[in-house]
């Protein structure tokens, strides 16, 4: 059940990763090495019984792919007017919340408590990351 829950949380987070964009609610500065992806990749590696070298190369390829997808997406997002970018952000948030509520509805009450705790931890980590990225950007400008 834990693997299923982890997979569901990861699947619900994919839109955020796939359409990573700067601005309110975006993932500015995200480099593709987040824990959610790491947990998914660990399961992937265990299933394939990869060697240390294979894991390293797979990680490198996945990181490059993530960066390439982000750059492609960013090129198109940069062409959108700010109002449309904001609308996109809000629509993505609403879609993610709808998915989270549907996922939560599949769970037993004790699982829902754990799910809520996991979602809160992810929210806190995103806030910490955003604060760190802001600090890093401010420091770079000095």
Describe the 3D structure:
It is a single chain. With 142 residues, the chain is an all-alpha fold. It has one domain (2-141). Helix content is 80%, strand content 0%. It has helices spanning 2-18, 35-48, 52-77, 82-105, 109-141. Helix 1 (2-18) crosses helix 2 and helix 1 (2-18) packs antiparallel against helix 4 (82-105). The protein is extended, with a radius of gyration of 17 Å. Mean pLDDT is 77; it is low at 14-36. Residues 26-45, 83-105, 120-142 are annotated as: Disordered. It comes from Stutzerimonas tarimensis. This is Spy/CpxP family protein refolding chaperone. Residues 83-100 have a biased composition (Basic and acidic residues).
In brief, what are we looking at here?
The chain is mostly helical and 142 residues long.
């Amino acid at each position: 059940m834990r693997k299923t829950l982890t997979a569901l949380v990861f699947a619900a987070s994919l839109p955020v990763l796939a359409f990573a964009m700067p601005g309110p609610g975006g993932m500015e500065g995200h480099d593709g090495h987040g824990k959610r992806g790491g947990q998914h990749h660990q399961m992937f590696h265990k299933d394939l019984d990869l060697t240390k070298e294979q894991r390293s190369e797979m990680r490198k390829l996945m990181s490059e792919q993530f960066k390439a997808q982000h750059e492609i997406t960013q090129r198109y997002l940069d062409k959108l007017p700010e109002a449309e970018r904001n609308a996109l952000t809000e629509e993505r948030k609403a879609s993610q919340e709808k998915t989270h509520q549907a996922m939560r509805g599949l769970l037993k009450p004790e699982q829902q408590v754990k799910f809520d705790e996991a979602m809160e931890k992810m929210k806190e980590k995103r806030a910490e990351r955003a604060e760190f990225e802001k600090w890093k950007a401010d420091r770079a400008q000095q």
